[in-house]
């Protein structure tokens, strides 16, 4: 009997959705940053084992839409609700249980759910036991699993529970598929991750990245990318004094990309100002939202 299904991850911003997806897949598919709202698209990771295939989706954190960009992010959450076979509801173990359960109730799920208490390493055993009891009392999850996504603790147990809930069916993707995203998309996300790591406050939220050239030469891969910002002042900050910041950004991103594609990379970055791109449907479409 072969099992296959779509398993989608839901939760508040920063609950650890992307870290969980990366811990399960073992490749760095979803970008991670301690700032909230790093994930803007549904990222699909695929795991194929003898006997089952799971297609995972990491959704943006559930928020109230402030910009058109946010509306598109919430659209990604809605479509994930519609095609899930199993829902993973993840929360930070230190966050308010009541608030999270209210949020999960509002999703009106029609499929079996697993409630995941993440960052369990931050709680004492006593507090964890109390939280587990309260979480089980909610009664709407098939099972409650404590994990630490960052330390990869509890992942094996979680996988067993997921497989148990999978419907019977044939595989959706060939055996060697890791993700349905293109390398270009993942490269752009790696550059965007570095912007989240290096720059303060609003800069990352006003920025998107497009890969304009991806050419595999004999000895290396040549990549050119545009960093899109909303104001000239932001462009100045990303460039830095005499181009210092953009060089640092380029070096860090290049190292990650080389590790990912296992080739030497020549990376060229340009910064462009496009006012209000987050509220412009044409720009959002062009940038893949």
Automatic annotation (TrEMBL):
<feature type="region of interest" description="G4">
    <location>
        <begin position="118"/>
        <end position="121"/>
    </location>
</feature>
<dbReference type="InterPro" id="IPR009019">
    <property type="entry name" value="KH_sf_prok-type"/>
</dbReference>
<dbReference type="Pfam" id="PF07650">
    <property type="entry name" value="KH_2"/>
</dbReference>
<dbReference type="InterPro" id="IPR030388">
    <property type="entry name" value="G_ERA_dom"/>
</dbReference>
<keyword id="KW-0547">Nucleotide-binding</keyword>
<keyword id="KW-0472">Membrane</keyword>
<feature type="region of interest" description="G1">
    <location>
        <begin position="11"/>
        <end position="18"/>
    </location>
</feature>
<dbReference type="InterPro" id="IPR027417">
    <property type="entry name" value="P-loop_NTPase"/>
</dbReference>
<dbReference type="GO" id="GO:0005737">
    <property type="term" value="C:cytoplasm"/>
</dbReference>
<comment type="similarity">
    <text>Belongs to the TRAFAC class TrmE-Era-EngA-EngB-Septin-like GTPase superfamily. Era GTPase family.</text>
</comment>
<dbReference type="InterPro" id="IPR005225">
    <property type="entry name" value="Small_GTP-bd"/>
</dbReference>
<feature type="binding site">
    <location>
        <begin position="58"/>
        <end position="62"/>
    </location>
    <ligand>
        <name>GTP</name>
    </ligand>
</feature>
<dbReference type="GO" id="GO:0005525">
    <property type="term" value="F:GTP binding"/>
</dbReference>
<dbReference type="GO" id="GO:0003924">
    <property type="term" value="F:GTPase activity"/>
</dbReference>
<keyword id="KW-0342">GTP-binding</keyword>
<dbReference type="InterPro" id="IPR015946">
    <property type="entry name" value="KH_dom-like_a/b"/>
</dbReference>
<keyword id="KW-1003">Cell membrane</keyword>
<feature type="binding site">
    <location>
        <begin position="11"/>
        <end position="18"/>
    </location>
    <ligand>
        <name>GTP</name>
    </ligand>
</feature>
<keyword id="KW-0963">Cytoplasm</keyword>
<dbReference type="GO" id="GO:0043024">
    <property type="term" value="F:ribosomal small subunit binding"/>
</dbReference>
<keyword id="KW-0694">RNA-binding</keyword>
<keyword id="KW-0699">rRNA-binding</keyword>
<dbReference type="GO" id="GO:0070181">
    <property type="term" value="F:small ribosomal subunit rRNA binding"/>
</dbReference>
<feature type="domain" description="Era-type G">
    <location>
        <begin position="3"/>
        <end position="168"/>
    </location>
</feature>
<protein>
    <recommendedName>
        <fullName>GTPase Era</fullName>
    </recommendedName>
</protein>
<comment type="subunit">
    <text>Monomer.</text>
</comment>
<feature type="region of interest" description="G3">
    <location>
        <begin position="58"/>
        <end position="61"/>
    </location>
</feature>
<feature type="region of interest" description="G5">
    <location>
        <begin position="147"/>
        <end position="149"/>
    </location>
</feature>
<dbReference type="InterPro" id="IPR005662">
    <property type="entry name" value="GTPase_Era-like"/>
</dbReference>
<dbReference type="GO" id="GO:0000028">
    <property type="term" value="P:ribosomal small subunit assembly"/>
</dbReference>
<dbReference type="InterPro" id="IPR004044">
    <property type="entry name" value="KH_dom_type_2"/>
</dbReference>
<comment type="function">
    <text>An essential GTPase that binds both GDP and GTP, with rapid nucleotide exchange. Plays a role in 16S rRNA processing and 30S ribosomal subunit biogenesis and possibly also in cell cycle regulation and energy metabolism.</text>
</comment>
<feature type="binding site">
    <location>
        <begin position="118"/>
        <end position="121"/>
    </location>
    <ligand>
        <name>GTP</name>
    </ligand>
</feature>
<feature type="domain" description="KH type-2">
    <location>
        <begin position="191"/>
        <end position="275"/>
    </location>
</feature>
<keyword id="KW-0690">Ribosome biogenesis</keyword>
<dbReference type="GO" id="GO:0005886">
    <property type="term" value="C:plasma membrane"/>
</dbReference>
<dbReference type="InterPro" id="IPR006073">
    <property type="entry name" value="GTP-bd"/>
</dbReference>
<feature type="region of interest" description="G2">
    <location>
        <begin position="37"/>
        <end position="41"/>
    </location>
</feature>
<dbReference type="Pfam" id="PF01926">
    <property type="entry name" value="MMR_HSR1"/>
</dbReference>
């Amino acid at each position: 009997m072969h099992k296959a299904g779509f398993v989608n991850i839901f939760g508040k911003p920063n609950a650890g959705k992307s870290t969980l997806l990366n811990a399960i897949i073992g490749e760095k598919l979803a970008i991670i940053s301690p700032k909230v709202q790093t994930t803007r698209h549904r990222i699909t990771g695929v795991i194929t084992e003898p006997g089952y295939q799971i297609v995972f989706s990491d959704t943006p954190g559930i928020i109230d839409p402030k910009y058109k960009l946010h509306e598109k992010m919430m659209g990604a959450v809605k479509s994930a609700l519609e095609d899930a076979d199993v829902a993973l509801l993840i929360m930070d173990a230190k966050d308010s249980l009541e608030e999270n359960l209210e949020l999960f109730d509002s999703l009106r799920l029609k499929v079996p759910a697993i409630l995941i208490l993440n960052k369990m390493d931050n709680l004492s055993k006593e507090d964890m036991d109390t939280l587990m009891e309260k979480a089980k009392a909610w009664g709407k999850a098939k099972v409650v699993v404590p994990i630490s996504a960052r330390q990869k603790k509890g992942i094996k147990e979680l996988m067993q529970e997921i497989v148990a809930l999978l419907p019977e069916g044939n595989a959706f993707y060939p055996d060697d598929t890791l993700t349905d995203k293109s390398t270009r998309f993942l490269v752009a996300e790696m550059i965007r991750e570095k912007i989240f790591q290096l720059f303060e406050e609003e800069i990352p939220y006003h920025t998107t990245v497009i890969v304009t050239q991806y050419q595999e030469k004999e000895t290396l891969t040549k990549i050119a990318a545009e960093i899109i910002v909303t104001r000239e002042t932001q462009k100045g900050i990303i460039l830095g004094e005499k181009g210092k910041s953009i060089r640092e950004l380029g070096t860090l991103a290049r190292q990650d990309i080389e590790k990912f594609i296992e080739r030497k990379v020549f990376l060229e970055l340009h910064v462009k100002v496009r006012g209000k791109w987050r509220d412009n449907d044409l720009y959002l479409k062009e940038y893949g939202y």
